Amino acid sequence: METGKGYIHIYTGNGKGKTTAAFGLAVRAAMSGKKVYIGQFVKGMAYSETKCSAYIPGIEIEQFGTTCYIDRNPDEEDVQRAKNGLEKCKAMMKSGDIDVVILDEITIAVYFKLLTDDEVLGALKVKAEHVEVVLTGRYASELLIDAADLVSEIQEVKHYYRQGVLSREGIDC
């Protein structure tokens, strides 16, 4: 039974599947006639999931990252892209024109100090009542967890990456 209230979800943890879970929700929402906006923080490459908006009406995807931070520290451009991305997501949440707003890897943007918890919490506070919001990424802070209505922690039990298997297109990226 639909309540009309939008809730805040967090998908966090060190396991594979946080973005996948968020995209699953996006597909379900779009197939129900809802409008979905996905802002991907940190990510700047055209991963396979970014193609879904070409096939599924009602899903819009925008990336706010440049490259991966595994081998470098974020720079001022990374910070500015994250701040601009958060402002765009905030506007989408506030307008009420979008039913589901996904902030993919937002907790990583906070972890790498591109954004602060307070900035993210401030964006969440202005969301229209009916808007469903999903935050994904490892290292979700206690402040964000406390603000959420639903938190799922995805834990790695075993991963083929540890056996030297790299990301496979269509499966992992």
Keywords, separated by commas or semicolons:
6 strands; 173 residues; six-stranded parallel beta sheet; alpha/beta
Rg, Cα atoms, Å = 15 Å
The general outline is globular
List unreliable stretches of 5+ residues. none
Distance between the termini: 34 Å
The whole-number mean of residue pLDDT values reads 92
Strand order of the largest sheet: 3-2-4-5-1-6
Reported for the largest beta sheet, the result is: 6 strands, parallel
H/E element string?
EHEHEHEHHEHE
Residues in helix, %: 25-40%
Number of helical segments with 4 or more residues:
6
- Structural classification: alpha/beta
- Sheet-strand content, in percent, reads 15-25%
Number of strands: 6
Show the helix and strand layout.
Blueprint: E1 8-12, H1 18-31, E2 36-40, H2 52-55, E3 59-63, H3 76-95, E4 100-104, H4 106-111, H5 117-125, E5 132-136, H6 142-147, E6 150-153
Parallel strand pairs: 1-5, 1-6, 2-3, 2-4, 4-5
Helix pairs in contact: 3-5
